[in-house]
Sequence to fold (1600 residues):
Amino acid sequence: MAYNPDKPMEDRITDIGPPHFEQFYPQVIKDNKGKWLYHEMIQPGVMVHVSESGAECYTVRVGAARLISIELIREMCDIADAHADGCMRFTTRNNLEYMLDSKDKVQPLLDDLASRGNKFPVGGTGACISNCVHTQGWIHCHTPATDASGVVKACMDELFDYFTTMTLPAKVKLALACCLNMCGAVHCSDIAILGVHRKPPMIDHDAISGLCELPLAIASCPLGAVKPAKATNAAGEEIKSVQVNADRCMFCGNCYTMCPAMPLADPDGDGIAILVGGKVSNTRSNPTFSKMVIPFLPNTPPRWPETVDAIKNIVEVYAKDANQYERIGEWCERIGWEMFFEKTGIPFTIKSIDDYRLAYDTWRTTTNFKFTSHVK
Amino acid sequence: MAYNPDKPMEDRITDIGPPHFEQFYPQVIKDNKGKWLYHEMIQPGVMVHVSESGAECYTVRVGAARLISIELIREMCDIADAHADGCMRFTTRNNLEYMLDSKDKVQPLLDDLASRGNKFPVGGTGACISNCVHTQGWIHCHTPATDASGVVKACMDELFDYFTTMTLPAKVKLALACCLNMCGAVHCSDIAILGVHRKPPMIDHDAISGLCELPLAIASCPLGAVKPAKATNAAGEEIKSVQVNADRCMFCGNCYTMCPAMPLADPDGDGIAILVGGKVSNTRSNPTFSKMVIPFLPNTPPRWPETVDAIKNIVEVYAKDANQYERIGEWCERIGWEMFFEKTGIPFTIKSIDDYRLAYDTWRTTTNFKFTSHVK
Amino acid sequence: MPKHDTPLLDELESGPWPSFVTDIKRQAEQSPECWDILGQLELSFVDKITHWKHGGIVGVFGYGGGIVGRYSDKPKEFPGVAHFHTVRLNQPSSKFYNSAKLRAICDLWEKYGSGMTNMHGSTGDLVLLGTTTANLEPLFYDLTHDLNQDLGGSGSNLRTPACCLGTARCEYSCYDTASLCHHLTMHYQDEIHRPAFPYKFKFKMSGCPNDCVASIARSDFSVIGTWRDDIRINQAEVAKYISGENKPNGGAKTDATAFDMEKDVLALCPTGCMRMKGDELQIDNKNCTRCMHCLNMMPKACRPGLVKGASILCGAKAPILDGAQMATLTIPFIEINPDNDYEEIIEVIESIWDWWMEVGKNRERVGETIQRVGLPTFIKVLGLDPIPQHVKIPRENPYVFWTSEEVPGGFDRDVREFRAKHAQ
Amino acid sequence: MPKHDTPLLDELESGPWPSFVTDIKRQAEQSPECWDILGQLELSFVDKITHWKHGGIVGVFGYGGGIVGRYSDKPKEFPGVAHFHTVRLNQPSSKFYNSAKLRAICDLWEKYGSGMTNMHGSTGDLVLLGTTTANLEPLFYDLTHDLNQDLGGSGSNLRTPACCLGTARCEYSCYDTASLCHHLTMHYQDEIHRPAFPYKFKFKMSGCPNDCVASIARSDFSVIGTWRDDIRINQAEVAKYISGENKPNGGAKTDATAFDMEKDVLALCPTGCMRMKGDELQIDNKNCTRCMHCLNMMPKACRPGLVKGASILCGAKAPILDGAQMATLTIPFIEINPDNDYEEIIEVIESIWDWWMEVGKNRERVGETIQRVGLPTFIKVLGLDPIPQHVKIPRENPYVFWTSEEVPGGFDRDVREFRAKHAQ
Ligand code: SRM
Ligand code: SRM
Ligand code: SRM
Ligand code: SRM
Ligand code: SF4
Ligand code: SF4
Ligand code: SF4
Ligand code: SF4
Ligand code: SF4
Ligand code: SF4
Ligand code: SF4
Ligand code: SF4
Fold:
């Protein structure tokens, strides 16, 4: 029985939700759920969880591109069948995890994975750089200011040793979002790669009439830069349209989201901003937002060398300078942001000074500062 | 030669500024200015500054009401002549200071001061409660929500022992401002006593026409609660006036400052709010604003017992609980504000939750909190 | 064989990290439209700009979400991706699968789509990337009938809830995140599939304050496990950390210097509520904020207490438009009770929705609504007592609102009476 | 003998703190109008409300400030205070006096006023409290001719500058606050006496970051002494603190527990840049923020460096209207050079004024103007390089402004060219 276009509503099934998770649990998880006592990393990418019952669950974590084919998924299934009773899961950072009920099964799995070229790198645990959370970019979205998968591949290639080792001061969480919508929720990452536009939207007077509700387009701008205006379209008709006050635009793209006739993407205008020092966990210090330290780097496919170098530099300086168990943001707070710029050699620009809402709270209202080369 | 009303401009002198300070320096200050090596408190209210030259300057600090008569000033002068070569100064907290060039002169001065009743209390140094900075109140201003001198007298009487001793964890800076204009700059005090209105302005339609520029009155309201309106005055004429949207009013009084026909003071509406934990110094921690912990206490002349008790309670809990050298605000930050309310027993009210601008930054955006009796 | 030259993309086939380019090429052998994916992406690499049109509204009948429409702006050059819609499958909680299920999904997608996926989307869905409008209904039919599973959310509705591992494989978890996540997902199928909200709304659940699903940063309704009694300390294991027998931080740092209780734990405890009395570790629990650091450093020695539950935080979101918001602590501690179908949680959710659906503006996230009306109003709406835990600090400005009822004599006064006492 | 019964005020005659009531009564024997001060204040104590009318504009010819007009709203009952204007005398820097000067002022005020004063006003003036309009010109004449001193500020002008003790009697002072304060006061007499600003503007100068004149909290232009080389350490004195011979914190706490270098100093150093190497105190000065704590704790052992100057911070103010503002670090380090009449400082002041007088709105403090236009603009206006010292943290939102010049190709684009590449 299959879908019948003539009777679309015939025995239609809806609202059944996702499959229940439990059916996919490996036996050792079923048996020990809620009984776990502690965990330990055996080696990068491999950890054991030990249950009150004495049972052990060995987890092998495998890096994945996130943008993956069903062929690759099938291969993942083959591996699961061969080593893990067909069970597996994906992490919140898009890594693949196999869970084994005995230590003996670990090495064979590792060997198998290793035998398959660079498709299944093991790592991403502990004081490492795990997988880079990211979004669609040029592969699927309409508003990106940069690509996602390409940039991430370029970065992870360069940072690969940090994925397979656990020698950083603490976890470093990398994320990319290809526009200010920040689908990657990069706004609280140790290092955030953010696609940014830098040119105000164009107005397509030939298309706007059918396409956009002008009041919504006008209301969409947080800075009131979009105003009603008359214009003449290709057909020579005078139409109701909008205009943009470029001086007030900060390129958030919200108008384009609301009105397809206001594209702002541009080969030279678009690029990448780097934000650092965010964290999500409540561990030690409170969750914090990432701060913009590099306002713009150009889009340079296929390997975005400027972006890769900038990130590598930050990671290396942090690795050398921070205390152990100290996240990047905690390190910056301790040494002071002036020292972050001093030590990384990243030029401080006026773009890093907040001038949006709540900005005053970010100004330095004390005489407590350190003398760096910035102070003439 | 005196002022001649018929020739007001005759040999008029202007713009000569204040007398030069140097002529008033005691000799020991003249000689050692810029050479001071260190200071030490000899006893509460008495300290010595020692110069590179070996010279010593003994300072005796005397509390004053600030609102003082020329008779009292003359008496201060007599004392200065008798003990301090006629020199004296006033501190930034309105205390009087005599400076002596030798230790032998200290005791005679102290004895003299002590012999004059309660007019010249010695103290206000070190880990104490020094003089309470304050403003005009009912003695001279037009916008107060409480009195100044009366409240301060009541508080200082009760806190007097803290003025004459140095046993608090650290300095406690007390300040009073009789309205939100905060002339006392109480907004960064360890403990701030703030006069607050709680009733929206009345509109005196009989007076407004001559008295106020309506556009200024309307523009004066930060919350746009003042709107143009027609009204009928006593003479029965319809006039241009304003009206106030009471729901939007937070009683700042700015409209009254701009328009005398909008009085808001009221015997029952007015009273005192208590703010704590502010500091000005950059010492250890950055300067910080005081936080509102008690939104309202009634005006109860002549001795404002509710206010006095509230302050005494805060000081006593702080004295018992804080680490040494820790200011009130530093203590609150360390133990957490929930603990401040727990330990002081001050009821937490919704008024202490910010709902003005920048309010979001004050919300708790972490799971890090302590379980106090507040959590049911 | 390749349909387009992709010299730039080809450069991404080298390097140690798995190459999505190599992967797409491999898939292309089966699903030729993948050549056009590569072709168009190569063009974007050359042009440094996307070649997708502004999304179009497509979907399956009766649902307002689950599909994101997408069309190429170069359909002639790349017919294989002229239509390239996304299908969001609601993932199983914590993203556990077995090979049978994944193979079934692969077969389904081989039949109806490009063969490319995102495992997983940022919200949590299993994302199938690229199909045509015509394929949507048949795909949905097979999905529900043969795979018996369903779509996830998109649009102004409840988005697909997501959670961390929780008790399934984590010793820190203070409640069963997967069960709560699944229950709410099932309970709110209608809200997921049929947009009725001012804007999107997201649930995320983490089992402890480490917050491995980043709920505090990106969910309108964040449920984070915690406990309210004392941390369980195993002094014998404490000794083993000190002796070096136990690896600090669960061995998460291979080059960690020898464990130093003072430096690595006590000094980093944000509240300073820990101390060693001789070789006994003591925690002044009433001053502990359950930040997890000591548990993370000594998983064998420190465990959450026994009186477990969760904190509820509301209103996190990305920066568009007023700047990003972290979730705000709304209910410090709530019981997580499967036996009454999480009644307490449901109650909170629905009082938030009832209010937000009434006062929320179009495209206004609940966090933005809270900002607009103020936290005090939100607290009142939920019928909660205002408590200091709601704020980092009490207000610094003196601008307090009072109502006429709160003030003796009320607001109404006669200015002429006033003038009688106070000459103008 | 008393003119009015003052039962409430009389209660304020008891108690250890000096009683302003007793004092006013004493003055009343000489200046009968003081009875009316007491009478009206008693009435306010009864009515719980002020009995002063909204200020009136009075002053001396040619000046726009220095006098605050005040009238009683019960002139018949209290004729002695029917007029009760305030006269603000510009205090000598750091408020040093001798008896001759104060006696002269007392005599002047006995002649022309109520005999009551504020020693001193919050801004710093010597405030004479209560006189009549008729008395203003004669008082001013005698003040300038016989006492040869001048009024302070009020209104939308430069307010009377004020400073801490500075080098006169403080070992911490990094510059001569009194000399700078006096110089600026003299240099800007016109700005003090003749309102030409959008709103009030205040200078305050402290010799070190302890900020004893609270300049960072309440001055539009705050000059706070600091140094840029190393803290001078006297190791011999350090030893005496450790041995207990020296009193910690200059003996400011009589019940201080025995000095504990680790607990009382090192642990409280906000940057953790101090350590003991054996019995040598070491400071990593490049990480020191000069917070003063160690100097305050060990005045004999730690002194400011030798390369002294000041930080300039701008824009502090009370809450009206947008909430209080702390001064913002604008120039981290500037030389204080009397030899060139403080040229560098004057230059900064005037570039701020030139800009503020042009763009500042009526009744907008410079701090509010900075908030309105943004700190980046203010930094540009002053021709300063933006540096990390200007901020606590870099921006958290991604909303950066760019100009057409900054972006290759500029802002102007042809949408039809765009459409040629990207089908709608
Ligand atoms: C598998 C995963 C949960 C899941 O449901 O998928 C997970 C699993 C664990 N996390 Fe996590 N975390 C996972 C994402 C996160 C995230 C979210 C994220 O990465 O976007 C966070 C918050 C990130 C942040 O703070 O910015 C997170 C913050 C932590 C922390 C706090 C670290 C800190 O010091 O701030 C710990 C505790 C620790 O590592 O000591 C922790 C600890 C752990 C433990 C040790 C918990 C346990 O006992 O099993 C698990 C292994 C840690 C490891 O991999 O090093 N997990 N963990 C996620 C793996 C992602 C990946 O593939 O790399
Ligand atoms: C006389 C005076 C300056 C003046 O020009 O008049 C002054 C004088 C001294 N101050 Fe101050 N301070 C004076 C007002 C202030 C103020 C402003 C205020 O009180 O409104 C502050 C900032 C207040 C704040 O932070 O909220 C102030 C914060 C300090 C500090 C920092 C204390 C802290 O830990 O935060 C120190 C250092 C210390 O006390 O260890 C200090 C230290 C000192 C020293 C020890 C400086 C020295 O070596 O001589 C002086 C004696 C301290 C004492 O009295 O305990 N002075 N001091 C002021 C006396 C006011 C009074 O009569 O009580
Ligand atoms: C597919 C996905 C990115 C990915 O590659 O994983 C995604 C893709 C889009 N998001 Fe998103 N968002 C995705 C997770 C998120 C997240 C992360 C999360 O949910 O945890 C966020 C930040 C958290 C939040 O909700 O604030 C996010 C914040 C946004 C926003 C900004 C919303 C806001 O209130 O700030 C927009 C703009 C909008 O809604 O118009 C947006 C809009 C979009 C649109 C629909 C583009 C648009 O302007 O309409 C994107 C469609 C891309 C495409 O063609 O495929 N997306 N979006 C994620 C959903 C997959 C899934 O269901 O699992
Ligand atoms: C006399 C004095 C209070 C005192 O008892 O010491 C005072 C008294 C008045 N202040 Fe003030 N201010 C006084 C120092 C201050 C200070 C403290 C300071 O200067 O360090 C502040 C806070 C710091 C600041 O400037 O922000 C202050 C902030 C205000 C404000 C709010 C200004 C603002 O921008 O927030 C107003 C309202 C206004 O300007 O209309 C104000 C207005 C007033 C008026 C003129 C009332 C009015 O609404 O017009 C008061 C006249 C009272 C009277 O009848 O005597 N006064 N005023 C102080 C001046 C004496 C002197 O010259 O030494
Ligand atoms: S971040 Fe922007 S561009 Fe990237 S997927 Fe989300 S909405 Fe699209
Ligand atoms: S991009 Fe953003 S700021 Fe610019 S016009 Fe569009 S909505 Fe306004
Ligand atoms: S604080 Fe308000 S009431 Fe008090 S003196 Fe200043 S302006 Fe007047
Ligand atoms: S008191 Fe303040 S808030 Fe109320 S109406 Fe007047 S100006 Fe507006
Ligand atoms: S959030 Fe806590 S419970 Fe969930 S996986 Fe992470 S550490 Fe474990
Ligand atoms: S959980 Fe955090 S706050 Fe609590 S004791 Fe451990 S480290 Fe300290
Ligand atoms: S501010 Fe510094 S220099 Fe001035 S008196 Fe206070 S401690 Fe001394
Ligand atoms: S001045 Fe402050 S920061 Fe510098 S060493 Fe001393 S205590 Fe540390």
Observations:
- The pocket of iron/sulfur cluster (ligand 6) is lined by residues A 200-201, 220-221, 223, 225-226, 244, 249-255, 264 (CB under 6 Å).
- The radius of gyration of chain D is 27 Å.
- The longest strand of chain D covers residues 221-227.
- Residues 204 and 215 of chain D are 5 Å apart (CA to CA).
